[in-house]
Amino acid sequence: MISTFTLSMEPDDYRSPRIGRRIKVHEHTGTIRYIGEVQDTRGIWLGIEWDDPARGKHSGQKDGRQLVSPFSIFSLRVAGTGSFIRPSPSISYGQSFLHALISKYVDLPHTTGHKETVILGSSNGAIEVEAVGLDKVRAKLARFERLREISLDVDEVAWADPLGDIKKACPNVRSLDLSNSLLPSWDMVALIAAELSALRALSLNCNRFSTLTDTKIMHASFLGLKELRVDQTMISWPEVITLTSVMPNIEYLEVGYNDMKILGGTAFQNYTSATKLKILNFDGNELEEWSDVMMSTASFTTCIFIHASILMISTNEWIRLYDSLERLILTSNRIRRIMLAEPKKAILNIKHIGLQDNLLSSWHDIDALNEWVPELQTLNISGNPLVSG
């Protein structure tokens, strides 16, 4: 059997080093931050910011000197996660969405004989599969149209296919998992999502996207989305606010383990995003200030569940952003105190809060919750000093 994929785009444009491109070397993923020479050495080096801090050796330096070329600066989002590697065949730059889909869901026959060709998509051969005994392959490709859930977690998806191909291949997908991928930006995610009009749930955990600054390309991409998971993506709260502004039907939002320490409070109260958000999950962050959390989410005041265990959030600041918020999850954060609410600061719609595994040590903090969330029905505070000491 011989299988080939011929893309209408130029493969070299996606399978060669570029600043900001995501790569995988063996089991380690990272982002290219520098391409060029390094002093006192010969040849080209790639400066990589690794997702796993343990893989890093420095912060974009050699012999203590920050590397600066006329074309780029090797700077990092997380200090100490950088190192240099040589361009080599062992570096994977990923694959397209449909390549990953076919590789995972179609078991191509490994036999010899007369070869046939089947075209996937509607782009006049944009994706072409050549193999032996394609009757079974054609049947499996046809089933893509019936797929409702697709998981391409750890399958190195790095870019979208030509316009229309994804929509033609799997138009009925409602749930998509692209966690641990090599997608470089939200723009690329939007290009894929725009092809899936039935998409309702999207998981993007453990990715590293470039900083989100503009949503122009996204306005038609997430209109039907109801659930979004972006755990361990290093996303910031301002980016979350920007994202939800183009997700008018989002109901469940998970932003755990993103090292969030402060949300920003009243700075974001003018946004009118995510007016249908019901559940907001901050599990495993570093939020400390209850008032910051409340003020930053103040427009989601119909939340039902809050888990504030080891976070460092100001509850007043974020609740106002989501008037529909019903659940607030703050498990495993670092909230120590809940001060009494100022007049007119009450959050009326939150019914359920999860504050387990935080640092609350006084029952006065629990008493203060009544002023913040007078309609509260359930509260979980297990794992705090006040109940575990």
TrEMBL record:
UniProt-listed PANTHER family: AGAP008170-PA, INSULIN-LIKE GROWTH FACTOR-BINDING PROTEIN COMPLEX ACID LABILE SUBUNIT
Ranges for domain CAP-Gly: 36-86
Natural source organism: Phellinidium pouzarii
Top-rank lineage group of the source organism: Eukaryota
Name of one Pfam family that matches: CAP_GLY
UniProt name for this protein: CAP-Gly domain-containing protein
The UniProt record lists the keyword Signal: no
Keywords: Leucine-rich repeat, Repeat
InterPro entries for the chain: CAP-Gly_dom_sf, CAP-Gly_domain, LRR_dom_sf, SLRP
Entry annotated with the keyword Iron: no
